[in-house]
Amino acid sequence: MPTLLITSSPSLQQHLQAALDRELEVYDSLSALAEQPQRCAQGVVWVDADNQDEALLGRLCRGDFGHARVIVLSSTPSDRQAVQWLGAGAAGFLNAFSQPETLRQVSAVVAADGIWVGVGLMQQLCARFGQVARTDSPLLEQLTEREREVVGHLREGKSNKQIARDMDISERTVKAHLTAIFGKLGVPDRVQLLLKLSS
Amino acid sequence: MPTLLITSSPSLQQHLQAALDRELEVYDSLSALAEQPQRCAQGVVWVDADNQDEALLGRLCRGDFGHARVIVLSSTPSDRQAVQWLGAGAAGFLNAFSQPETLRQVSAVVAADGIWVGVGLMQQLCARFGQVARTDSPLLEQLTEREREVVGHLREGKSNKQIARDMDISERTVKAHLTAIFGKLGVPDRVQLLLKLSS
DNA sequence: ACGCGTACTGCCCTTTAGTACAACTCCCTT
DNA sequence: AAGGGAGTTGTACTAAAGGGCAGTACGCGT
């Protein structure tokens, strides 16, 4: 399993090589690597994001060039960048000049098919996710079983007619359920309901 | 730094003990541990979530019983559970009977104050974050200026009549813009458009 | 001058959404 | 037995959404 490094910075190359104590296959830019996709079909690729083509890096993370595990490095890391690359499918995001011990840790985690992310960011992400999950369930608790089913279909964007077909009841009954749902949740129509559920 | 394990399953105890090759302090249930909170004031606590009190586990993750690092195990893991516990403050979530190598990896990461999470879940979290943080979708690039304005109003859940008032044009023109928008984005109606934009 | 894209609007039409009012059947609790 | 919630459906209505057809107007490049 080869370990690749994409950077145009000699100092970063030296830093990473010293930390990992392993043979690195170094490429100057992603475009150079893109021409031989078989090199990154597997293994781990460390990418210095500072001077790389964002679109190309995004494709690499998404797996367009194989199933490589991508670790994105930045000398000026931010939460925005972290979300961008981890969301695209990167396996790690951290400061390019992190402590050697941290780099080794990241390397081990990623090699074991895990992903590496800073504690602060993780808390932010969970808070954001939890925010949605929290407002989601209590809202639907006041609905009956059948009404929740209707909401489920509604979230797929189905029409009343389609919901009626899928639930094997009349369209009139679907409307009855909807009227009850709108009343309980305090919304005027299906559009507002969807917005309330996804906010 | 003690390592605790909360489970009522002998096979899980054996599995983890063998993988970590370390002395484990085993408790049958969380309620047994809750009576002596000083035991989990620090260190790492592995908890088998399968047969535990959810409320109690939530409090443990949130730090009600000290600042222990909590790793939640499940023999039937799901993203929903992962979000639930990581969101509550757990340091890791994984299959109870993961490979010994993975378990050791998780142990190392958590001991180093990191968080362990699967790649798929990470992408979901980032997507959810982006949903809130992102203001403009690449989908909207193919729309004209005026059409993007209409979409903006649409995302507020406004009716055509209201949009017409706000943009100071006729309702018919709003419909004309909408027809163009639906065509370009390949959706049949406003509901599907909203779903597409928020996915 | 001509074509083209964008914006805007009218009339008229069909379909969909939503509600008011009125029933009926089950099932569960009192 | 009586009441009530949940689920179901009908008729009839209003309002909203969506689109076809037709026309006007403005700016921009050839």
UniProtKB/TrEMBL annotation, chains A, B:
GO terms for molecular function: DNA binding. GO terms for biological process: regulation of DNA-templated transcription. CDD domains: LuxR_C_like (cd06170). Keywords: DNA-binding, Transcription, Transcription regulation. The keyword Zinc-finger does not apply. Gene3D superfamilies: 3.40.50.2300. PROSITE patterns: HTH_LUXR_1, HTH_LUXR_2. It holds the Pfam family GerE. It comes from the Bacteria. Residues 136-199 form the HTH luxR-type domain. PANTHER family: TRANSCRIPTIONAL REGULATORY PROTEIN NARL-RELATED, TWO-COMPONENT RESPONSE REGULATOR. This is DNA-binding NarL/FixJ family response regulator. It comes from Vogesella indigofera.
